[in-house]
Amino acid sequence: MENLDTDFIKMVANGVGVIEPQPQEETGSNGFISATDLINREVDEIECLVEPILPRSGVVATGGASDTGKSALLRQLGVCVCTGKDFIGFPVNSIHKSAIYVSTEDDEMAISFLMRKQNRDFQLHPDELLDLKFIFNSENLLVNLDEILKETPADLVVIDCFTDIYGRSMNQANEVRTFLNQFSQLSNKHQCLVMFLHHTGKKKENDYPSKHNLLGSQAFEAKMRAVFELRDDLADDSKKHLCIVKGNYLPADFKKESYVLEFTDNLTFRNTGDRCVFDMLVKNDDSKKERNEKIVSMVKAGMTYSQIAEETGIKSRGTISKIVNNYNGFQTFPKETNGNSKETLPF
């Protein structure tokens, strides 16, 4: 493995730049922190920027196939961070109400058009978004971000997209990890969240949602504290599925079912209140067929959707209703109401 100094030189040569490593908190002459000290800090929950799905700081990623709306979703996240409004139904805990969006794929004209289009739904006065800042030049990006964050602290930095600023082999785990460590240091230094937009591998949208669907080395997803995968609905073009495929501090039930989002003509997202088990997003999956047949047999046996949800581990009774109603040749049973209602944008 190349030493760290050599990797830093490579980054500078590639126009990324480096920031100086920050000294760790001093707790003793030997530089370690005892378990006693850590326990006595009484940290009972992880601070979140978006409660509870995104931590206050660290590096995270949103992936997906082309043209699924990833950039639109992350621009909406930036808007919510700056306004303090909920993000697709999740509370936002902004401190600075400021975000930085690095756009390597869309230029100023394109972003102007896209933001105006999204704002038809947001209905915000332009002055309300003064603290959502866009960067279109990724040369010496780390150094520039460090300087900007010193002057004007931000809650969120979005990098759209990772492969454009990395520019080397995604399969070299040591290079990927060293590169990401620099952004992790940036996040820790300025206590902001760094969100990377990334792509999934070819035809991975037909596979089970997974952190392993991201392009390149496993080192990328391993460094992330959270990974989202955004997917198209298999039947409805107006629906998207936000799948949390990695969340270091989230309970397992967050990572078994997607959050079903309505994608508007103005490129904004609304949480429908529905969830969908991951295997319903996979085409021609044998395990899905077996699961569906089991659920239908439970309904025929007189079990309620609530009982089936508890038995199968599916949290959303709406998902069970869809499975039953879509089952070939099965007569629809009366639905239970699940208390969900369609949400509107919080603007």
Question: What's a concise summary of this model?
Answer:
By secondary structure, the protein is of the alpha/beta class. The chain has helices at residues 4-13, 35-40, 70-83, 108-122, 141-151, 162-166, 173-190, 218-223, 286-300, 305-312, 317-326; strands at residues 48-50, 54-55, 58-64, 99-103, 132-135, 156-160, 193-197, 226-232, 239-247, 257-263, 269-277.
Strand order of the largest sheet: 5-4-6-7-3-8-9-10-11
Strands, total number: 11
| Biggest β-sheet strands, sense, barrel | 9 strands, mixed
**Structural class computed from helices and strand pairing:** alpha/beta
* Average pLDDT metric: 86
Rounded to an integer, what's the Rg over CA atoms? Answer: 22 Å
- Number of continuous helical runs: 11
Strand content: 15-25%
Topology as a string of helices (H) and strands (E): HHEEEHEHEHEHHEHEEEEHHH
Q: Between the first and last Cα atoms, what is the distance in angstroms?
A: 50 Å
Q: Helicity range of the residues? A: 25-40%
Task: Using the alpha-carbon principal axes, give the shape.
Answer: globular
Provide the low-confidence segments as ranges. 1-10, 23-27, 331-344
